[in-house]
Amino acid sequence: MARSYVHEARKRVGPRRARIRPIIERLLAEHADAAIALRFRTDLELLVSVMLSAQTTDVNVNRVTERLFEKYRRPEDYLAVPPEELERDIFATGFFRQKTKALRGTMRMLIEEFDGQVPRRMEELLRLPGVARKTANVVAAELGEPQGIVVDTHVRRLSQRLGLTKEDDPVKIERDLQKLVPREYWGIFPHLLIWHGRRVCLARVPKCDICVLNDLCPSARVNSAG
Question: What is the pLDDT of residue 226?
């Protein structure tokens, strides 16, 4: 299906490279409030929030971290309690045993190798236990130094529908997007697609009739003739 979108895009709405700036500009105007939904005040809170967000909702994470961040303020705090206590404190985010192990391993490495500070470079973030590329990309972008483009389910779906990629693997999708999206938009671009995906380009029944991108989208279900 993704492959057919790309073919149709070339035929009906023009090449990807010609459409990417208009797509970004329209989404910026349409979703001026697009931003990360996780709530945090410090670099460490950002890292923890993103690690906890795996396999759960941002709303759920915010509910848990509201209390969590009052109790755990420094990397040392996560190591000062028994693992079972931290497991109970993050239980509601799911996969709490794996997340506890990852958090404690990350906090230990932050203390031992990064002077207790959250690193900003992708290669350093990826060394942290439990931090995969998507998490590292989110953290780097929110710290103001995006070095890649976050690919979640919304970004994957919309990138395919818009004919920006024919790939299905997140790493390959990211590679395609990095070639297309101007670097100054790497941080905001995923948020624009995520918010558009939640508000308009829904998974099952996209609202193509009210979509600001319908004339730029090869999969828009509207009559583009005339």
Answer: 35
The contacts of residue 74 (CB under 8 Å, 6+ apart) are: 44, 116
Residue 222 pLDDT exceeds 90:
no
In the block, tokens 């404190």 appear at 89
Count, in order, helices (H) and strands (E) of the chain.
12, 0
Does residue 10 register a pLDDT over 80?
no
By the 8 A CB rule, do 107 and 78 touch?
Answer: yes
Q: Is the pLDDT of residue 209 over 70?
A: yes
| Residue in 99, 134, 166, 176 annotated catalytic | 134
Q: How confident is the model at residue 45 (pLDDT cuts 50, 70, 90)?
A: very high
Angle (CA) 215-200-147 rounded to 5° is 85
Structure tokens of 99? Answer: 């997340």
**Burial class, 78, CB count within 10 angstroms (exposed 0-12 / middle 13-18 / buried 19+):** buried
Out of 43, 58, 77, 152, which one is annotated catalytic? 152
- Active-site annotation holds for 152: yes
Active site residue 134: yes
The model's pLDDT over 110-145, given as tens digits with 9 standing for 90+, comes to 999 999 999 999 999 999 999 999 999 999 999 999
